[in-house]
């Protein structure tokens, strides 16, 4: 089995140098903490909780508008991962993801930060039927939003908020609909949705360094043979994915089996997240 490629350090004359990384203690945050400095970025780290191994990281509650503004002050760009990263109660999602994202964008506006990379999610389109495989037509980014959870709904809000701040205030944003960003795919669905840690770094670097983007929405996956989503908009930013979940396919299928026709995991992009709950 071929191991995923490592991110190759590179720099860009147009890339911002000092980047605020919110949600730095999370899984994707950890991958970017390791990967982005290789592209020449200096990171300012924030999270609600301490960031392991990073004594200089700031503990910032996204509900605290003044603290968010102070964290944003003086940076060239923001990578916004902060907030709840899985489904939760609507009230908790409202405070962390919806109000928190508003505070982040308002702080960027007030402090003159002109580039934000927003961690959106594939759960914005969770109830969209998945494309048949194999098929020649990957799903475009301009399909109507059909969120599968309150979490996905909050990411729809975040994309709309980014659009508003781009149109009204000139805050350029790339909203990345992240699929499944882990060291390796963990089940059959992730063979289609996987974003390798190294490709996550490549994609965020492209989003930070691309020429003027206004508000762009792109899917965040690796170059997966079984991928469902159109990567053309991400490639237009300069993203060149190097990894493919197919390297793990035999092992994953042996352990978990293929997707079963008729199940939520098979029918919808959001998989099990589209199942009814009490």
Describe what you observe in this structure:
By secondary structure, the protein is an alpha/beta fold. It has a single domain, classed as NAD(P)-binding Rossmann-like Domain (Rossmann fold, 3-Layer(aba) Sandwich). The protein has nine helices and nine strands. The protein has helices spanning 27-35, 65-72, 90-111, 150-169, 190-193, 197-209, 232-236, 249-256, 264-267, and strands at 18-22, 42-47, 58-59, 77-80, 115-121, 172-178, 180-181, 194-195, 215-220. It has a seven-stranded parallel β-sheet with strand order 3-2-1-4-5-6-9, sandwiched between helices. A two-stranded parallel ribbon has the order 7-8. Helix 4 (150-169) links the parallel strand 5 (115-121) and strand 6 (172-178). Helix 1 (27-35) packs across helix 6. The longest helix is centred in the middle third of the chain and has 22 residues, at 90-111. Mean pLDDT is 93; it is low at 1-13.
Can you tag this structure with a few keywords?
alpha/beta, 9 strands, disordered N terminus, seven-stranded parallel sheet, single chain, 278 residues, Rossmann fold, globular
Give a nutshell description of this structure.
With 278 residues, the chain is α/β, with parallel strands linked by helices. The protein has helices at residues 27-35, 65-72, 90-111, 150-169, 190-193, 197-209, 232-236, 249-256, 264-267, and strands at 18-22, 42-47, 58-59, 77-80, 115-121, 172-178, 180-181, 194-195, 215-220.
Strand order of the largest sheet: 3-2-1-4-5-6-9
CATH superfamily: NAD(P)-binding Rossmann-like Domain
The CATH architecture would be 3-Layer(aba) Sandwich
User: Helix and strand succession?
Assistant: EHEEHEHEHEEHEHEHHH
By CATH, the topology is: Rossmann fold
Please tally the helical runs, counting DSSP H or I stretches of 4 or more residues. 9
What percent of residues adopt helix (DSSP H or I)?
A: 25-40%
- Shape category: globular
- Low-confidence segments, given as residue ranges, are 1-13
Mean pLDDT: 93
Query: What is the total tally of β strands?
Result: 9
CATH class category label: Alpha Beta
What number of domains?
A: 1
Strand portion: 5-15%
